[in-house]
Amino acid sequence: MYRFLVSGGQPLRGAVQTASAKNAVLPILAACLLTEETCTITNLPALEDVNMMLQLLRSMGVAVERQGRAARITAAGRVSTEAPYDIVRKMRASYYVLGPLVARFGRAKVSLPGGCAIGARPVDLHLRGMSGLGAKVTIEHGYIDARAKKLAGAALMLEGAKGPSVGATANTMMAAVLAGGETVISGAACEPEIVDLADFLNCLGAKVSGAGTPEVRIKGVRRLSGAEYRPIPDRIEAGTFAAAACITCGDVEIRLCRPDHLTAVIDVLRRAGARVETTRSSMRVCCKGRAKACDITTAPYPGFPTDLQAQFTALLSTAAGTSVVTENIFEGRFLHAMELARMGARIDVKGSTAVVHGVERLSSAQVMASDLRASAALVLAGLAAEGTTEVLRVYHLDRGYEKLERKLSKLGAKVERVADST
Ligand code: EPZ
Description:
Elements: E1 2-7, E2 13-17, H1 22-31, E3 39-41, H2 48-59, E4 63-67, E5 70-74, E6 82-83, H3 85-88, H4 98-105, E7 107-111, H5 124-132, E8 136-140, E9 143-147, E10 155-157, H6 166-176, E11 182-186, H7 192-203, E12 207-209, E13 215-219, E14 227-229, H8 235-247, E15 251-255, H9 263-271, E16 275-278, E17 282-286, E18 296-297, H10 309-316, E19 322-326, H11 335-341, E20 346-350, E21 353-357, E22 366-368, H12 372-384, E23 388-392, H13 395-400, H14 404-410, E24 414-419
Parallel strand pairs: 2-15, 3-14, 6-7, 10-11, 18-19, 22-23
Antiparallel strand pairs: 1-23, 1-24, 3-5, 4-5, 7-9, 8-9, 11-13, 12-13, 15-17, 16-17, 19-21, 20-21
Helix pairs in contact: 1-2, 1-7, 4-6, 5-6, 6-7, 8-10, 8-12, 10-12, 11-12
The structure holds ligand EPZ.
Residues 23, 26, 93, 119-126, 160, 162, 165-168, 189, 306-307, 329-330, 372-373, 400 line the site of ligand EPZ.
């Protein structure tokens, strides 16, 4: 186990490069189960979640060959159709094997993901997608069991009480590419990661159209081929570096990112007083002086991403004035607020709203990470605080950020990874 020692007070300066998007890579790796031919996924980020997905595929008998940042994946011959609890409990996104397994092998036994720090996170919409395509779905002994001789295309409404679901849209899209006839998904998630998955599926010979809009059409095909594919850059990693530049009053160029995937985020950065210059593949964020207070409301894409809420709440905790942050996607996604309060932040959380009274200066403390994005928020707060902050349980960070301490140090930050002595 490791912790981070973060010494505050240095404005970040220089350039940093984003890795490929975790939330695009995970479904793309699972989608390789849809074909017996070899798929080569390049520019893979060095993340625990990616290692976990590859481990899951290997445990199912899939051939996985790593070559540097690429993985050659071949799901030929006998493939187990089970995703065991022991892996799914460590990474919810393991449920992305559900759709491909039912579609290609007519059977999937996938452990239910169980609880999560940021909210209840049910999977009813995933099951609605599978049963809507004709699979017989049961839940027994903590496992989803889905069976179908052959899936059949259908018209499906996949919007839930909290709006569209990224995971359910992806799983249903992957199942529908081998179904008989046409599927129309309404209320589909529009995230760039969904578009990237659809682009990958079409590279394999699928017929997916309308991805990125609330209505996705999939014409089923009999079989798919292999392909080589490079996923999109990580917009959440890029947004995290942008918030880091602001909270330290720095000047950072974020390279190999997609500013067109970050419009809502750039809008908030500018409202907070940052100067933001963009090109097709880079974004320069410069913040002279203290950020200005502004309100944020999380929403499905193209709204402000919930995965950047914690990092921007940390930024606003040092802003001039009072901001209101409303979290509409995950009901329990304010765990970082109490940890930031240990550093002197003044944040009143009521239900899905946090009123953030900006303070001049945060002070260092020992703080505990509860989930991936909350841990990034604590590191950012440490970069702005007086003294050295200890962020415990950084294993959360390693799930979704590639060598964060090295990338931040390259920008002039003082961040050290140390092994836990206790
Ligand atoms: C994906 O999770 C991301 N994870 C999350 O990022 C991200 O926060 C989320 O989308 C929203 O953008 C991955 O891509 C691996 P949802 P997912 O289904 O698919 C409710 C990170 O930090 N819902 O779009 O699980 C759900 O409870 C992670 O990288 C149902 O009610 O999110 C939530 O309130 C954290 N029933 C809302 O919909 C369902 O069957 C949106 O969830 C499914 C979801």
